[in-house]
């Protein structure tokens, strides 16, 4: 165990730790917890605290009164039991990609050290630790001729992604939501117990976790299904500003009759004029067409013909690629940065909605909105298998999402502009947002259907009646008796 990297000061910690004017924990209490932790424990006065609370999204400013950097499931149990005994709210973080409202005075459990991955090729299942990234899973899965329902970035955590629904831009339209292909979950519930849950073992908790994220406990391991895919035809085309309108008008034509093996999105991107950006893209406003097809090369080219007809792109990476090259499709940033995001689910994309997107593109060009994306859903993502997890996006056919990057004044102005763009799409919206693309201020009511939220609240009352797990999630309040 480690208590930070510093020393407790007799002056600061002789009896209690004072944190933002509130008496929280005594030195002896924290030391006792640290003695049961294989990982590390940090208080706000410890060297290493700032690094321990830092997530990928540098806009997320949180100030927990205590951090447990867990190395094992036993560490998670000890941390949750400690929090319950002292009535301290609990939050969990693996990579910290998604923005949530700033919180103080809670116990943060970080799981980034728990990156174990085991591939069972015979069962086509991966067993992954709480801190595993998609980069940890894809390579060994591919060695077995299999692929997971991963996201666009290798740096995103598997557990958070999957428990938020898990929208794979590569396999999702063919196989559905990642949450529906979870085989089993090991989770520490608010009573400090480590439970193994599945469709047969505590099925209601299994249902709620696969969409409800950390509302019911901290997941220490997942078993997820894998699929026999080793390559795809696709990549991306960056079109210059003068072609953006044509790209947006071609998009509905491309996806209208597309098979479930084909996935497409278009992102409008304002690239900053910085050396880290490749020269062909640097400082430009571009439309990035993203394509993945699990069928033949010829079929894919027929599907994207309307894009090809627009002209040559600035950069074109479309071709036959090994599945392990998935990151080249979206080219997500690998390094942490400050951003805010907002999204909305669309039930349809009629001509008027396309006109709204064209208007937004004209406003976004060279402006403060860093990215505005329209992504095709449908296919197997619309399925409702037996025991289907609480994912409101099944009823949507498209997702609109945007983000703004930069210092506070830029982000705030950009989010105001982005909010207007998303609002203009409201006539075709389902009224909800996809959990993993929701904004900082979105709540449970914004990401769950009314029926699912009611059921989740009953489940919350059963497992977490004190609402201990109410930080870093779209919090589900326990049903009131």
Q: Care to give the gist of this entry?
A:
The protein is an alpha+beta fold. It has helices spanning 10-13, 27-34, 49-53, 73-86, 134-143, 158-163, 172-175, 203-212, 244-256, 297-303, 305-308, 327-330, 351-364, 408-424, 444-447, 450-463, and strands at 2-3, 18-19, 22-23, 40-42, 66-69, 90-93, 107-110, 117-120, 125-129, 182-188, 194-197, 218-225, 231-239, 262-270, 285-293, 315-316, 319-322, 339-346, 371-376, 398-405. It has 16 helices and 20 strands.
- Evaluate the radius of gyration: 23 Å
Give a quick account of the main beta sheet: strands, pairing sense, barrel closure: 8 strands, antiparallel
**Termini gap:** 42 Å
Strand content: 15-25%
The number of strands is 20
| Range of helix content | 25-40%
Shape: globular
Mean pLDDT: 93
Helix-strand makeup class:
alpha+beta
Number of helices: 16
- Outline the low-pLDDT stretches: 5-23
């Amino acid at each position: 165990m480690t208590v930070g990297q510093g020393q407790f000061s007799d002056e600061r910690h002789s009896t209690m730790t004072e944190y933002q004017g509130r008496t929280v924990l005594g030195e002896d209490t924290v030391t006792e917890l640290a003695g049961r932790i294989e990982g590390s424990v940090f208080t706000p006065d410890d060297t290493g605290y700032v690094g321990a609370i830092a997530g990928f999204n540098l806009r997320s400013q949180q100030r927990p009164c205590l951090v447990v950097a867990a190395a094992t499931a036993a560490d998670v149990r000890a941390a949750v039991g400690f929090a319950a005994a002292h009535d301290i709210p609990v939050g969990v973080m693996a990579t910290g990609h998604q923005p949530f409202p700033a919180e103080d005075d809670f116990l943060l459990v970080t799981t980034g050290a728990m990156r174990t991955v085991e591939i069972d090729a015979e069962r086509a299942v991966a067993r992954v630790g709480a801190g595993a990234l998609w980069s940890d899973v894809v390579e060994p899965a591919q060695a077995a001729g299999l692929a997971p329902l991963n996201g666009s970035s290798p740096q995103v955590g598997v557990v958070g992604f999957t428990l938020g629904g898990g929208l794979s831009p590569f396999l999702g339209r063919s196989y559905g939501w990642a949450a529906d292909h979870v085989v089993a979950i090991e989770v520490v519930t608010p009573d400090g117990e480590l439970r193994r849950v599945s469709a047969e073992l505590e099925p209601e908790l299994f249902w709620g976790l696969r969409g409800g994220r950390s509302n019911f406990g901290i997941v220490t391991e997942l078993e997820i299904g894998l699929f026999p895919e080793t390559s795809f035809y696709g990549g991306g085309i960056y079109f210059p500003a003068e072609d953006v309108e044509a790209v947006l008008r071609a998009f509905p034509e491309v996806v209208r009759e597309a098979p479930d093996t084909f996935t497409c999105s278009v992102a409008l991107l304002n690239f900053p004029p910085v050396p880290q950006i490749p020269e062909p893209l640097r400082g430009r406003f571009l439309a990035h067409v993203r394509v993945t097809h699990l069928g033949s090369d010829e079929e894919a080219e027929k599907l994207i013909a309307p894009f090809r007809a627009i002209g040559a792109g600035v950069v074109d990476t479309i071709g036959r690629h090994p599945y392990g090259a998935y990151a080249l499709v979206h080219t997500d940033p690998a390094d942490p940065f400050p951003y805010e995001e907002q999204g909305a689910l669309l039930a349809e994309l009629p001509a008027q909605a396309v006109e709204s997107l064209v208007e937004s593109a004209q406003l976004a060009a060279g402006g403060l909105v860093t990215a505005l994306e329209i992504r095709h859903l449908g296919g197997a993502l619309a399925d409702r298998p037996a025991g289907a997890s609480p994912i409101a996006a099944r009823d949507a056919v498209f997702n609109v999402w945007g983000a703004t990057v930069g210092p506070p004044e830029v982000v705030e102005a950009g989010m105001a502009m982005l909010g207007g763009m998303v609002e203009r799409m409201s006539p075709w919206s389902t009224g909800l947002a996809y959990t993993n693309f929701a904004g900082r201020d979105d709540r449970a009511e914004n990401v769950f259907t009314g029926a699912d939220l009611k059921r989740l609240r009953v489940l919350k009352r059963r497992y977490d009646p004190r609402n201990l797990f109410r930080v870093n999630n779209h919090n589900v309040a326990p049903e009131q008796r």
